[in-house]
Design goal:
The chain is α/β, with parallel strands linked by helices and 447 residues long. 33% of the residues lie in helices and 22% in strands. The protein has two domains: 117 residues, Urease, subunit C, domain 1 (Roll); 308 residues, Metal-dependent hydrolases (TIM Barrel, Alpha-Beta Barrel).
Amino acid sequence: MKTIIQNALIVNEGEAFDGCLVIDGQRIDKVFRGKEAVREARQYCGIEHTCIDAAGMILMPGIIDDQVHFREPGQPQKGTMTSESRAALLGGVTSVMDMPNNVPPVITAEALEKKYRLGADKMFVNYGFYMGSSNTNAEEVLKHTDTGCGLKIFMGSSTGNMLVDDPDALDTFFSRYPGVIATHCEEESIIRENLETAKARFGEDIPVILHNTIRSREACIASTKKALELALKHRTRLHILHVTTKEEIELIRKARRINPGISCEAALPHIIYTQADYVRYGTQIKCNPSIKTAQDRDAIIEAIENGDIQTVGSDHAPHTWEEKQNPYTLAPSGIPLIQHFCPILMEQVHQSALSIISLANACCHRPAELFKLKDRGFIRESYFADLILINPEKEHRVTKSQLEYTCGWSPLEGMIFTTSISHVFVNGTLAAENGQIIQKPPVFPFL
């Protein structure tokens, strides 16, 4: 039976227009616009159809999150594919790309294939997995370039310790890998020197507020420069993850003029928080790269709006509450955020810092294009019906009882968002409504 979503403000491909959308099976069947859209849609569908009245609501493609850390396999106490993808669904995310820093790390084709088999029964949203890199696995990677959604290179160490710092290994990957190389850019030598300086002063009792001094802007800028130089030298398809400084944005913008295959991402922690928030939240918001200044945050939001930053990812990275209570040097980096992906960005729209058009560009259209996700990321006839309905007038408060995360906590607890997600469709199936998961939808891998 066909489903009509009527009277919505449809946001898609640079437009926002009143219209109706018809879902048939897993796909978008028809899109009608104008004053007669409802009548035309009902006439088209005939007597047998269901109808959702979306008056006053925004309809846009489902969010494609290009950076998540679901922790499975290896660390189910932090997060599982089931729990974290359920959280993603409630956040308006219909597709995710999961990172390889699992336990053990996903640095072989066999491990990647095993992870895909695991995801087939557990995921509540569409999914792709990155292959991981190391200083010694170039031969393995280059034999299997047609698997996964891209290659992740940690040019700075982070959770999982998959640092790639051998110049020859980096040159091999950048010169020979044909797909998307996604990088974590922080210069390890600078971080180590800063950490030793902090330890000399504070011992093991380093204040959390020094996180962005230890994992400094200079470390980010130096590593991003290195990645850009390699990408320009080899014409690499480079995607720099979680950009945190205004200097990096400018460097990337200039490099893109020479190599349009270079792109970059902003992550939710660096849109929500500034370094001043370490005082309130402490290790709850410790993440890598570190959260920087208010000026950097504003530059990031402006760059999303003007297209200098092409995608937005959650960098969802859960750890247990007990782990996060450790002192600075022992508390792991990473924040669980994906369940509120869409409301977080809608706050920027509500405050007029970001347009709804730019939100759709960065969270739906550009990820689909950059990662070549067939028939997704747009509201187009015959495309998969991955869709979200947003109620821009319905407030909701974040409470612990609502959280789907295995870790059971969020730094957003108590926050009141000005908008809510009304409906989430994945491959044509209504999977969530008004903050409740209705059913597990059919989902597909990005191989």
